[in-house]
Amino acid sequence: MHPYLAEFLGTMLLLLMGVGVVANVSLKNSFANGAGWVVITFGWGFGVFIGVIVAGPYSGAHINPAVSIGLAVAGKFPWQEVPPYILAQVAGAISGALIAWLQFSDHYNLTEDKDAILGTFCTGPAIKNTPKNLFSELTGTFVLVFVVLYLSDATFSAGSLPDAKIGLGSVGALPVALLVVGIGMSLGGTTGYAINPARDLGPRLVHTLVPIKGKRDSNWPYAWIPVVGPTAGASLAAVLYLAIM
Length: 245
Fold this sequence. Notes:
Layout: H1 3-26, H2 37-59, H3 65-73, H4 82-110, H5 114-121, H6 130-151, H7 168-171, H8 173-187, H9 197-209, H10 225-244
Helix pairs in contact: 1-2, 1-4, 1-5, 2-8, 3-4, 3-6, 3-10, 4-9, 6-8, 6-10, 9-10
């Protein structure tokens, strides 16, 4: 499988499972309605597990622009491959969110809570405080990328792409899944822990475009935070990793 296709499919599966679990818990008349935060964090963790299993052998399973950028900053991934990886990830995120919307479309149209509907697609602050919201996304992504870098095999090179298939898949699907669950349980309650620009941007675009009865706006003024915060957090993780190693 081509690495770009692997990134597309891995991110698509991640978002299908992730948007799906939040929709399952949040939308009216779903059997899982009200299941709570623990179910959501495990659902996202299992989504990462599934995406890594599929994409890992072929692309390293970044499935996250922040991971691609962090690995490039750390010298473990070629910079020229970052833009096409990000494009594949965003396209995969859009596709996964669109499939999840199709799955739950009847439930979306029955749900009266407009904020809950938006929250199935993208993140937002529990308490609006722009500097702290940005810090929250930075911190969560810092933990993700720093641990991935720390656990990854240091013998990987950043030369040709076949020799640089380092990413979430290099750590192993289950440890990365548990890492994401841990971040969600410990740090996720402030902003919904996007920790992935594609994870937020793609579904937010889907929310804007798809027909849902009585939906609210997509809160685009907030959308830069889950892009800039994770990118900065991943870059700082890489810089610290290089300083320690």
